[in-house]
Amino acid sequence: MAQDATSRTRTEADSLGSLEIPADAYWGIHTARALENFPIAKRPISVYSDFVRALAMVKQASARANLEIGVLSAQKADLIDRAAQLVIDGKYHDQFVVGVIQGGAGTSTNMNVNEVITNIALELAGREKGDYAFLAPIDDTNRSQSTNDVYPTAIKIGLSLQLRSLLEELDLLRKSFLAKAVEFHDVLKVGRTQLQDAVPMTLGQEFHGFATTLGEDLQRLTENASLLTEINMGATAIGTGITTHPGYAPAVLHHLCEISGLELSTATDLVEATSDTGSFMSFSSSLKRSAIKLSKVCNDLRLLSSGPQAGLGEINLPARAAGSSIMPGKVNPIIPEVVNQVAFSVAGADLTVTMAAEAGQLQLNAFEPVIAHSIFQSITWMRQGMWTLRVNCIDGITANRERLGAMVGSSVGVVTALTPFIGYAASAALAKTALLTGHNIADLVVEAGLMTREDVTKQLSPARLSGLESVTSAIPIVQAAENVVVDERA
Q: Which residues contact 352 (CB under 8 A, 6 or more apart)?
């Protein structure tokens, strides 16, 4: 009876002994040990595809550099190059199986990459997987390298690749808010400070403010991304470059820039660069800033849509799901809520990065795996959160124009616009009367003889109340504040 293909194995050995490896697996013994040692996150590194692609780019660039400086044969370099390109193109990602959280400063990840690319290359050469006498994961695919320069370099390249898509999504979200700003440009509403009624503004101005704050983060994230362009390839174990040819570092830099499309540079002090994680802290911090600001916007959206009857009810968010298993008709702001939760996670991840960076010792930071996982998760969740916020929420927001108009009409905040003309004392007295009686501010001003109906109407126009049209001249303040009596009838 033929043995099932999935049950067949091959034997691989390392310095600790030998293990049986599934015959169809492209990974080998070092990966197998990692699977035994780190059943922690239950999430393989393949969940971050740009990270896997970046690791393959490093291996491809190294193969080209090693060929260039004459430490790897043309045949071997070509096989590694072609195998790495398949991974860069998105193939074999399911073979990158080690967990995102691991001990060893990323060694298990580097071993996983070495083994997969080597076994792909062996197949390209018509050889069996595991035929390491022909092409070896460490002696050939890892030639001139150490986990300690491969791993942080790949993190930086992977994050740079992911940042491109994050910035694209962030800009689309910004434009979505801008579109709503244009749509709501003439919708007058009551502004609020400290959750209390303030002066009028337009709903368009409010949404324009949301767009502007997101635009600022486009700049900050781009600025911090430049910190990810300094790499330490050629440093090997601790930055001294042991086991490398003097020409390797410039050669691998050239090829890595060409392959990745990034403007990378080699650190001037490779010992410092191998132990330093400051760039990851700065980048994580910029992600947290963006996430927290976005979360604040989502808080505002939930407040503005609250009710809809007993809350503010100024805007309507698209209904995305039933809001209750017991209350018919209830709809919750689930999209802003999920983005809030993303922000909470990003903030927590930033603290994790901070603690991991602080915990590094001497010539290496052993905690780069949790740094990598934390930042990759943050940037992935933020991108997806921005997408769902834009597509499933912002684009479908509508304004409750009648409700907004009614609130502005009865708001005492509009009297602020009249203080240059009737004085603060008179304005305060009229505001109190309006609050007590519910009377219209404009009517009270005219009845008090402080302004004509025409002037009041002009100054309380939507354009002037919202500041879109500036006051070009002032009516002399009527010195009749002492004659304004507060009507305390409810």
A: 370, 371, 374
